[in-house]
Every structure is written in structure tokens, then in C-alpha cells.
Recover the amino acids of this structure.
């Protein structure tokens, strides 16, 4: 979809809309400012989000609130071990017509919506999980040889429960890589907890006002997403994003031909099995562009890229057993990568 | 030189042209400061090091001066390239200037992006917004906001270096003035010196600075002591490293003298030193180092005098005329016109090629004299019990004199008040094997004719 130059919203429109949505979501979500911000960045960058958090931290509530604020269609799938791919994509069913004839008709699954909540995605089998792959990457679903397009915007928010890991199926790397950001929801602080308790146990519950009219929401969001892609990036900044992505790849990787620009940090070589894919670089750049618009700029800067480095790259690093044994987490490694690339840039 | 972009924007007044022009001004200021830093730092280092060296020449001993000189030289060699590289790195092109402006004015890459995409960014929908947004922040990146100073802060270092150099200049000027005063003073000055206080000089270049008058026996005794000291200085197992260190020290000493104006060789007037009484300091019979050195405290000085020409003094002058000729030839320009009151019966300059040596001892025939004063001094020279009676052929050349290299340092009581006084080191000396501590000597029979002489010696 391309928009004429005059149809593009302005930078100020973008920032204003973004902040309004954020405000509406925070009517029901107390705290979690950074996760909400990252969620919206991923939405406007055209990506999908994996939300990790312990039960009761507001994952489902967050997704619902977002759907209501955007005034978009919303579906929720609770992933379980016996969930089948057809339960997600839909299936062909036999329908009896008025004339008594029976025919197969496609019955769309819950994936046919704008905002999809895949709750506890790691509880479904890999086969079912991978049913989402096509929808997430290509915005289409193929059932019985027929391809059905999804209506943009299509935004998947999958949640991961880090406890009760028994009987779960960790997401394959290929599917992890399709998530634009991985957002972590931590326990609320005491003051936030007080606000949560008081706001959810009183007689009046906060009601979310939709930002867009029902018919225009999808179009408005798509135009804002288009504006994000128009943000101007200097070649040096693009090179910085590429260097950052490449610096997550360990030197010993057998999938490397030219080792120039690979990880200089020893920790990466020691603890990382596989670094970020090019999708990580794309996420860095698109996330940086959204940040630039939020800051009222038409250009992305180094700082914008640094801001989105962790949610964009953290889940794309496959750590080895040494990292697990030493208790090294991706955030630590990304800090090291940022530092080494910044130093090489001369800052 | 203007870049293609600057030339293209020369006559335009839009946001892009304004921003680039302002950026060029910022770049000029950055480069001006970088040039100042390069100049001030380099000059400051050189001037400061030079000033410190001159001040050190006044305040430090030769060895410390040498050490400081080496340290300063190493520091200069190490720091000058560093300073130059650091200043050179501050020079900025347009791209680097834009990056600096983005950082200091918190423009978040606006200027860098404009500059990078000025040629091809015009067709992007957000390009006009970016240009106007940047142009609206012209005030944020005024040159005086990006670089507040017009003068590099490295000027402080330069000023400090100049102050050090000024101090050094003042000290040098003061020393030169005092040198002039000394010259005037020395014209009519004769110093009465006890010969026992004389030691070989540390610095051979001091040799031309004094003219000594004394009776021949005293002079001969001094010459013997000088020779002994020189031999002790030379006699050790000096390694090549020692010799190198020695040469370096001499070089440092000469440089020090030149810097401080203490170069007495340049002083036409010599200090006239009259050795009041001759002592019985016999030269050591055994010249092995550390064995019977008559004055170990001076031995240190004897090392330095090894270059004084003593090694070349094996010539044995056969006549007074020959020695006189040698003296006039080798004493340097200052000796070409000896002072009118300088006795010239015999001149001896240890600083020259005819330095003190075994060959400088006058032959016996020349020492024959009849003056009672001279003979008395000769007898007095034998305070050693073995020579109480004095040598039978005691010389009596009352008017003999020669120039001798002495360690005549400037003291704080001298006309050069700023000079460092020379304090001879305290050294415990082993007794001569011929002396017995605290035991009275047996009285022998003294010839009646010599009693008066002996009494006078012991009274002294």
C-alpha cells in the first residue's frame, strides 16, 4: 500500500497518536511503561511481539486494552498441548445449502483478526506453533492449498510463561526470529501494586476510549506505519545497525565466510552459539525510526538504535550451555556488543 | 576550500543552505582551536622544557642535571608526537563537524543526516521537514555555543611554560650581571688559601680560572697530590660504561656552566690565589686506590679531573723557559696576558696539556735556593716525623708559581650571590700508617739550628 505524499500524516500526528494510545492503555495497565512503549513501537513498525512474564502481571489485559484503544478486531487463542493448527488458521467444513447440497467452505480461524493474542504459546506443540509462522511473516494463511490473505494491520502478541516449564515446547529459533521484539513484564513495584489493587477492586472500572473510529482505524494505523518507513536514515547509521547485528555473531560460527566486523567482544564468542539474523537488523532500524518519530524527528540516529537494541536482539541470540552455567543473560551480552561497536565507531 | 555542496548552496537562502553555512562556521572554529592547541602545546612543551633545564642548571648538581636532562629529553620525544597527534585529530571536516554539532547541540543526528543525504535526500517525503526542522535550530548550533572559547585552553600550559622560561631568563640575566661584577672584583683580588684546603677539581674546565702563587715546595706538594688524585681516578678498573657516564657528566657540567654563565674560561680575569703556608702533605707513596690516598674526601673530585690533561703530562720540562713556554701556549686565551702582579718565574697549568704529573716535579737543581723563608716553609712541610728535618736539598725558589686547577666554587659569600656554595663532603679518613693516634712522639735530638723552625711548625 502506498500513500501519496499529501496523505501522509505528519511527524507530530504520529507522536500525538502514539501518546494517546499509550495513555488509553495505561488507564487499565498500571506501570509497565517501557513494555507498553515497546509494544506500540512494534505495532507501528509492523512487527509482532513476544511477551514474557509471570502469571498475573497483566499480559492478557495489556493486549485487550490495546485492541480496545485501537478499535481493531481482537482474538485470543489459549495455546494448549492439544491445540491443532486448524484451531488457529481455520478449516474447511461441510456446509449444507438451502437446496440440500453440501459443500466445503472455509471457516476462518481466530487468526483472521487485526490483533491476535496467542496466550502461553509455548504450551502448544511445535506443529501448532508453526501454524502461526506463515501468518506472521507473510500475512496470509494457506489451508488445503488455498491461500487466504489477512487484513492489515495484523499484530500478534504471544505470551510466554517462564514458570511451569514442564510439558511446554520452547519456541523454535525460526519462530522466535519472527517476533520483532521480545518484551518482558516484570513484577509491579509496591506503589504500582497499590494502584492496581485500588483501581481493580473499586466499584468503577476504567473504560478505554477508542482512539480511532471503527471504520478508519486500520487505515489510520497503516498510514502511520507507512510514515515510519519514510523516516530518513544516514548511511552511517544504517552501517551502525548492520555492524551491531553482525557483532552478535560469534567468530567461530560455521555460517560465516567473511569474518570482518564480527564480534570483538570475548563474551559473545564465549557464550553465543548463534547470533542475530538479518531480521534483527531490520528490527533495529524500524524500531529506531519509530523512536525518531516519537522524538519529533524525521531522521533516525545512533541513539535510537541503541534504545531498541535489547528488545530487538535479545531473543535472537542463542546462548550456549556455558552462558547458562555462568548465569549470563542476553541483556548483558547486548550491553557488551553495544560498547564494542560504539568504541569502534569512535564515540 | 569549499566543497561541492558548499558551492552548490552558495547563492541559496533556504534551510539547507543556512544550516550548511552555519556548519562551515562551526568547522572553522573547531579547526582554529585545533591549530591553536597544536601550536600552544608544542611550543609550551619546548619552552617549558628549556626553561626547566636552565633553572635546573642553576639549582642542581651536574649528575642531577644530567638525569633531569635525560628525563626531559625522553619526555619531549614521547610527548611531542602525542600532543601533535591529539591536536591533529581535533581537526574536522564537514562530516566530523556535523557529528560534533549533533552531539553538543543534541540535534540527534539531524545535521549529519542532512549532510550525508544533501545530494539525494530531496525526493524523500520527510526531507523538507528534516531540513526545516534543522534550520529552525540554527541558534542551538551557533559557533560560540558549540565551542565557547575562541582561544584554546592549551594556552594555559603555554603561559605556564613562558613563566618558567621567564624565570630561567631572569636567573640567567642575574647570573650574567654577577659574572660581570665578579670580573671586576677579580681584577684586584688575591685569595689567601691554606693549601690543605685545596683539592683537585671536579671539572677540568675550571682549570683556567685561577692563578696560584706559592713557594715551590707547596706547589710541588699540590702537584703531587693532584697527580695522586688523578692516578686514583684513572687507576681503577673503569669500565666503558663508567667512562661513558663520566663523559656524559662532563658534557652536562659544561652545558650547565654555559647555561648559568659560570664558564670561568670566558672570564679574562683569574682568581689569584696565594698559598699562605706550605703544608707537609706528602703525596702518597702507594698510589693504589683506597690504599694511602692522602685525602680520600677529595678523591671524588680526582675522578672528574681525569680529563684535565693530567694524563698528558708525562712531559718533563727541563728548564724554566720550557715550562714558561708551555704555560703560555696552553693556558688558553685568558693566559695570554697574565696579570701584572702575577709572578712569572714558572707557570704551570694543570688544566692544559701539561697538567700535573710526575714529570712536573721540578728538577733538583732548580730547587736550590737560599732564602731562609723558603727553606723554613720546606721544613715545615715535613710535619711527618720522618721528615722533621726536611729534605737536605729543599728548594728555595721563593718566587716560583704556577697555575693550578682548583676546585674554586662560587660561594654565597662571593660576589655571585645566586651561585650554589660548594660544601666539601665530610669523609672519615683512615690514619696514615706512619701516624700513631693519640700517642706522643718520642722526642729526638734536634739540631740547635733547626729548633726555631720546628717550633714554628708545631705552633702552627
Amino acid at each position: 500500500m502506498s500513500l501519496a505524499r499529501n496523505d501522509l500524516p505528519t511527524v507530530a500526528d504520529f507522536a500525538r497518536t502514539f501518546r494517546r494510545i499509550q495513555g488509553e492503555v495505561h488507564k487499565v495497565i498500571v506501570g509497565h511503561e517501557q513494555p507498553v512503549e515497546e509494544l506500540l513501537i512494534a505495532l507501528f513498525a509492523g512487527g509482532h511481539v513476544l511477551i514474557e512474564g509471570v502469571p498475573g502481571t497483566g499480559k492478557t489485559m495489556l493486549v485487550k486494552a490495546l485492541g480496545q484503544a485501537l478499535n481493531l478486531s481482537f482474538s485470543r487463542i489459549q495455546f494448549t498441548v492439544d491445540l491443532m493448527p486448524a484451531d488457529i488458521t481455520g478449516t474447511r467444513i461441510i456446509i449444507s445449502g438451502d437446496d440440500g447440497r453440501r459443500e466445503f467452505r472455509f471457516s476462518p480461524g481466530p487468526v483472521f483478526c487485526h490483533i491476535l493474542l496467542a496466550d502461553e504459546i509455548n504450551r502448544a506443540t511445535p506443529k501448532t506453533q508453526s501454524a502461526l509462522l506463515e501468518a506472521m511473516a507473510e500475512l496470509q494463511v494457506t489451508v488445503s492449498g488455498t491461500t487466504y490473505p489477512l487484513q492489515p494491520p495484523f499484530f500478534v502478541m504471544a505470551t510466554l510463561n517462564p514458570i511451569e516449564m514442564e510439558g511446554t515446547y520452547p519456541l523454535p529459533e525460526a519462530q522466535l526470529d519472527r517476533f520483532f521484539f521480545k518484551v518482558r513484564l516484570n513484577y509491579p513495584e509496591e506503589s504500582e501494586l497499590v494502584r492496581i489493587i485500588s483501581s481493580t477492586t473499586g466499584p468503577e472500572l476504567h473504560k478505554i476510549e477508542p482512539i480511532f473510529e471503527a471504520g478508519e482505524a486500520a487505515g489510520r494505523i497503516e498510514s502511520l506505519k507507512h510514515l515510519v518507513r519514510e523516516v530518513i536514515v544516514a548511511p552511517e547509521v544504517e552501517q551502525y545497525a548492520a555492524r551491531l547485528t553482525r557483532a552478535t555473531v560469534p567468530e567461530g560460527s560455521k555460517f560465516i565466510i567473511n569474518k570482518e566486523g564480527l564480534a570483538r567482544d570475548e563474551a559473545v564468542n564465549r557464550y553465543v552459539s548463534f547470533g542475530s539474523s538479518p531480521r534483527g537488523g531490520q528490527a533495529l532500524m524500524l524500531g529506531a525510526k519509530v523512536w525518531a518519530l516519537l522524538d519529533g524527528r524525521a531522521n533516525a540516529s545512533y541513539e535510537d538504535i541503541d534504545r531498541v537494541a535489547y528488545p530487538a536482539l535479545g531473543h535472537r541470540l542463542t546462548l550456549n550451555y556455558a552462558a547458562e552455567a555462568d548465569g549470563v543473560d542476553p541483556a548483558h551480552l547486548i550491553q557488551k556488543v553495544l560498547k564494542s561497536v560504539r568504541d569502534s565507531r569512535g564515540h | 576550500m569549499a566543497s561541492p555542496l558548499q558551492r552548490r548552496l552558495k547563492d541559496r537562502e533556504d534551510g539547507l543552505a543556512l544550516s550548511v553555512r552555519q556548519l562551515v562556521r562551526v568547522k572553522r572554529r573547531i579547526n582554529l582551536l585545533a591549530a591553536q592547541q597544536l601550536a600552544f602545546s608544542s611550543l609550551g612543551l619546548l619552552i617549558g622544557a628549556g626553561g626547566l633545564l636552565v633553572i635546573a642548571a642553576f639549582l642542581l648538581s651536574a649528575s642531577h642535571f644530567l638525569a633531569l636532562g635525560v628525563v626531559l629529553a625522553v619526555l619531549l620525544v614521547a610527548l611531542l608526537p602525542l600532543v601533535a597527534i591529539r591536536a591533529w585529530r581535533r581537526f574536522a571536516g564537514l562530516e566530523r563537524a556535523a557529528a560534533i554539532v549533533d552531539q553538543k547541540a543534541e540535534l540527534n543526528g539531524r545535521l549529519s543526516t542532512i549532510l550525508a543525504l544533501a545530494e539525494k535526500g530531496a525526493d524523500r517525503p520527510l526531507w523538507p521537514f528534516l531540513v526545516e526542522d534543522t534550520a529552525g535550530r540554527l541558534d542551538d548550533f551557533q559557533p560560540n555555543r558549540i565551542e565557547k572559547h575562541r582561544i584554546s585552553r592549551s594556552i594555559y600550559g603555554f603561559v605556564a611554560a613562558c613563566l618558567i622560561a621567564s624565570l630561567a631568563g631572569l636567573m640567567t640575566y642575574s647570573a650574567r650581571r654577577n659574572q660581570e661584577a665578579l670580573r671586576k672584583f677579580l681584577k684586584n683580588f688575591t685569595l689567601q688559601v691554606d693549601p690543605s684546603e685545596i683539592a683537585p677539581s671536579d671539572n677540568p674546565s675550571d682549570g683556567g680560572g685561577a692563578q696560584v702563587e706559592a713557594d715551590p715546595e707547596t706547589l710541588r706538594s699540590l702537584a703531587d697530590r693532584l697527580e695522586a688524585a688523578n692516578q686514583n681516578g684513572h687507576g681503577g678498573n673503569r669500565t666503558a660504561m663508567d667512562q661513558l657516564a663520566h663523559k656524559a657528566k662532563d658534557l652536562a657540567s659544561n652545558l650547565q656552566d654555559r647555561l648559568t654563565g659560570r664558564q670561568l674560561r670566558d672570564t679574562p680575569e683569574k682568581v689569584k690565589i696565594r698559598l699562605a703556608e706550605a703544608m707537609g702533605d706528602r703525596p702518597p707513596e702507594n698510589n693504589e686506590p683506597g690504599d694511602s690516598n692522602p685525602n680520600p674526601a677529595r678523591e671524588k673530585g680526582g675522578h672528574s679531573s681525569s680529563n684535565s690533561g693530567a694524563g698528558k703530562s708525562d712531559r718533563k720540562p727541563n728548564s724554566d723557559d720550557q715550562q714558561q713556554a708551555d704555560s703560555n701556549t696552553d693556558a688558553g686565551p685568558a693566559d695570554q696576558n697574565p696579570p701584572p702582579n702575577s709572578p712569572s718565574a714558572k707557570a704551570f697549568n694543570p688544566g692544559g696539556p701539561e697538567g700535573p704529573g710526575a714529570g712536573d716535579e721540578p728538577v733538583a737543581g732548580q730547587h736550590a735556593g737560599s732564602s731562609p723563608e723558603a727553606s723554613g716553609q720546606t721544613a715545615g712541610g715535613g710535619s711527618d716525623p720522618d721528615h722533621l728535618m726536611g729534605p737536605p736539598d729543599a728548594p728555595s725558589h721563593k718566587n716560583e708559581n704556577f697555575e693550578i686547577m682548583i676546585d674554586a666554587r662560587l660561594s654565597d659569600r662571593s660576589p655571585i650571590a645566586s651561585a650554589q656554595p660548594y660544601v666539601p663532603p665530610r669523609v672519615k679518613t683512615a690514619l696514615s700508617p706512619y701516624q700513631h693516634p693519640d700517642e706522643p712522639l718520642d722526642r729526638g735530638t734536634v739540631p740547635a739550628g733547626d729548633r726555631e723552625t720546628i717550633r714554628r711548625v708545631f705552633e702552627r
Observations:
- Chain A is about 45% helix and 15% strand.
- The radius of gyration of chain A is 21 Å.
- The longest strand of chain A covers residues 90-96.
- Chain A touches chain B at residues 5, 8, 10-11, 227, 230-237, 292, 295-304 (CB under 8 Å).
